[in-house]
Amino acid sequence: MKNSLRLSSAATMLVRILFAAVAAFPIVFMLVSSLKPDTQIFGDMSSVAAFLPVGNISFDNYAAVFDRVPAARFLVNSIGISAVTVVLGIFINSLCAFALSRMEVRGKRVVFTVILATLIVPFQTLALPLVWWVNQLPYFELNGFSLEISKGWLDTYQVQIIPFIANAFSIYLFHQYFESIPKELDEAARIDGAGWFKIYRQVVMPLAARPRPRSRS
Q1: 8 A C-beta contact, residue 42 and residue 64
Q2: Could you tell me the pTM of the whole model?
Q3: Which mean pLDDT values do the consecutive 10-residue runs of the chain (217 residues) have?
Q4: What is the CA radius of gyration of the chain?
Q5: Can you tell me the distance from the alpha carbon of 101 to that of 99, in angstroms, rounded to the nearest whole number?
Q6: Residues contacting residue 168 through CB under 8 Å, at least 6 positions apart
């Protein structure tokens, strides 16, 4: 019995190692290729040398990135846009989920169903209409003491942030977690004179941020 269990665990471990090795091949190839010149990358494609740090190895490619393109600006933009999108997304999505979960609003089940239905729509079907819509929106720019109004959000920061703040999957996750919080807490806060936003800010969100203790079996 013990021998069969050991063989089963060894076979399982071997399968996991094989899957991990297959998944690691592209990453290894990317890292090794970043240390080689372009001619050597294509020359090593026909052999196992494509996955090995052999030949003319150097860090020149990493230094050349900052000479070819403004890589530092790209990195700062990515960090800034991601941070703003995440912060605004947490606020907007959690606020929407709070209203759908805790407040007695007529038609909230229909609204929640429509939000979930958007998850089955691939983003590729929305990409072109989204580009058209953002290109029709007004763009306000402050030039000295005058406010200039133009048309279109293309090549702006807000086009990379605003369309991606609201997320149906995030709303669903917040909604499901808020449903597990006892609504008696809302009633107690309402008796003490708290409004819905205060309940959201001081009751529900702190409980959502706090990890729950594991149940002992």
Answers
A1: no
A2: 0.71
A3: 72 89 88 87 84 85 83 90 95 94 88 91 85 84 76 85 91 92 90 91 87 54
A4: 26
A5: 6
A6: 115, 116, 118, 119
